[in-house]
Amino acid sequence: LEKRLDKLKKSKAKDSQTKAKEEAERSALEKIQQVLMDGKPARSVTLSDPEKDAIRHLCLLTMKPVIYVANVAESEVADPEKNPFVQEVAKLASDLQSGVVTVSAQVEAELTELPSEDRVEYLKSLGVSESGLGNLIRATYSLLGLRTYFTSGEKVAYEDFVAAGSLAAAREKGLLRSEGKEYVVQEGDVMLFRFNV
Fold first, then answer.
1. How many whole angstroms separate alpha carbon 186 and alpha carbon 169?
2. 3-state class of 102 per DSSP?
3. Which domain holds residue 184?
4. What is the rounded distance in angstroms from the CA atom of residue 150 to the CA atom of residue 72?
5. Are residues 38 and 88 in the same domain?
6. What is the distance between the alpha carbons of residues 96 and 98, in angstroms, rounded to a whole number?
7. pLDDT 10s per residue in the chain (197 long)?
8. How many CB atoms lie within 10 A of CB 80?
9. CATH number of residue 168's parent domain
């Protein structure tokens, strides 16, 4: 940070657009440097959108979002907030603008050994509806702003594809059809996924 700040202070940008970007970066870096000196992560600084854009190329580690994962005993899975250590982690995470997920490593290990039909029953017996790993995945998706979705497109059975000779020939013969996200893929399906980037 210090080297970058020195470079920005010495910079003599000619055009106003470059000057504005450098000023935004300098302003953001000064704020971040002060917070880092206080022992806090860079993500605790409130930055404007131009400042965020200006420092994105630096890929500062403490700007990355964080989730704290607390391991609890099997008996505490249903109500982990009663655990004093989880309370401490939750307080720390709140102070650092981060999330907390509780997981029982013991329960997760047992779940991997159970057949899939027994897992739901086992989780219900513990008083939860989803495993800690599922909660962690959901929290991670939320933190990163990710979504899961399914694409759909044209599909044709493999036998029809081989008989037609090519995808274009299968299309001409009317063997291709479009399916939506509710379609269950069958053995031998040849699929074409359509998407926009």
1. 21
2. strand
3. 153-193
4. 34
5. no
6. 5
7. 888 888 888 887 778 888 888 889 999 999 999 999 999 889 889 999 999 999 999 999 999 999 999 999 999 988 988 899 999 999 999 888 888 999 999 999 999 999 988 999 999 999 998 999 999 999 999 998 887 765 555 556 777 778 888 878 888 888 877 887 787 887 777 777 777 66
8. 23
9. 3.10.20.30
